[in-house]
Write the structure tokens for this entry.
Amino acid sequence: MTEPTIDWGNVPYRAAELLYRLHNNTITAEEREELHALIPAPLRQRLLAELKDIPALDARMARLARFNSRQAWEQVLAKRTAQRKRTLRQRYAWAAAAVTGIAVFTWFFSGNQQSFDAARIVADNRFGHENDVLPGTSRAELILSNGKAILLQSNHLTFEEEDGTRLRSDSGALHYDANAASGETALYNTLRVPVAGTYRIVLPDGTAVWLNAASELQFPVRFTGNKRTVTLRGEGYFEVAKDAQKPFSVQVNGDTVAVLGTTFNISAYDPSRTTTSLMNGKVAVAARKGKKVLEPGQAAVSTAAALKVGKADLEKATAWKNGYFYFNNESITEIMDQVARWYGITVRYSGDVPKGQHIGGSISREASLGEVLEQLHLISGLHFSISGSELTISTATKK
Amino acid sequence: MVKFPGGYDALPTAVEPLFHQYYPRLCEFAVRYLQDEALAEDVVQDVFVMICEKSGILPEGEPARKNYLYAVVRNACLNRLRHLKVVHRHQDEQLRGQSFAPPEILETIISTEMVAAMEAAVASLPEGCASILRKSYVEGLSNTEIAEVLNISIHTVKSQKQRALLLLRERLGPGFVLLLYFLR
């Protein structure tokens, strides 16, 4: 829950009134009890201590009295006029960009990580939403072989698995070093990336995997035997290290994608539809409906009904990993699925939102939700309104 | 939600009384997060610019409206701090290493409201009382000097001063000496 939706009711105001009365000795016994029930003792003590610090209170009262709302109001009106001119100019600029179908912009908020989802919900004074939502960040949860969970963010951590494999995390990536490890059987770890998150892992063989939001990779901490097998859920981009003696394979939604040394992306958010796009090298997709070998630039789409190979949209398959959204003639629901995962929001469609419209364009994943929606609004004409972590889409503005 | 009828130009007119009512305490509240008066005023003004742009954004009535305003101002403060951190990252070594734990919102609201209640109590002192206190505490004038300046008898000065102190004690509790307040 975000702060704007928290409702304390009258608690803070009644508490302030009663504390004030307690301080100047006009409080009744009943009110004293009421105050005790209203706020916990430690908070009460801290506030009473504030009331005893007369010089500090004096300074604060003086400051309070200095804030001149008459003058300030003039500034509000001036700012409002200035902002209005600015937004009109921006609207023209964005509308022009929307015509070309592509409008790329970046907005850097901050390099520091937000540990709480509530911290990504920020005030919005640009787009008129109840609040804005900051984009996802590098974060994941690592489940060790003993079931212990470790939260990975920008923190630098080093630790050791039971078989001696060394793990090291730095800003946005986890590295495995199996040089000092021993034993026959491999231990399995799971890297879980939540919504509004992304993370990269470098396996002990040097294979790098980028995980998109709401995705999971299960893998052995070192590759024993003559195979390298990992299991994916969600979406992952793989740069597989070459090792002809040990083929690499990805288990995904019941299919197997077998590779040698290559680069490819697997998108499998929908359990009934897996898309494997190949950048270079060679992969063999073994699905329920047959087996196909992909050439670079091709994509395989596996469903319960068929395994189809066609031309890959490589721009799209790699965009997320390179830090932007890329929409190529996609429906609003397909687009919103991606947006919802990256901003950790839920989407509600109000009334008859046309789902058939197809939209194209690209937007930085560093942008705030409000900025992304402003773009989508200009391109699609749909209306978006953010409230906390819920987004409502409608065809007309609610008045 | 309150709706303000009348379109673009009518909106500020409807918001203005609320602005005067809440502006000082929202600024005082924002100072607790930003540690800077000018920055605090800027943030609170921006919040009201946003409110003017949106009809129907303010909850109706107390305390929902106050709760909303405090929460929005607090978020705007944290947002601004985040932005400032980016701006200063390469200039200010101190800001870089500093981990900032924002004040707890409920506590800050109660604290602000307490101060606002006290300020209201002092601001409503009769003008005569206030000006005698100001001359005595701030300007350091003796009773005789005050009597001369204000052209009243020394007896009136004494009784007014006593009454003022009594009122202050009644309103603010014992031991209150408001130096800065009257200095402003």
In short: Residues 52 and 142 of chain B are 50 Å apart (CA to CA). Residues 7-34 of chain B form the longest helix (28 residues).
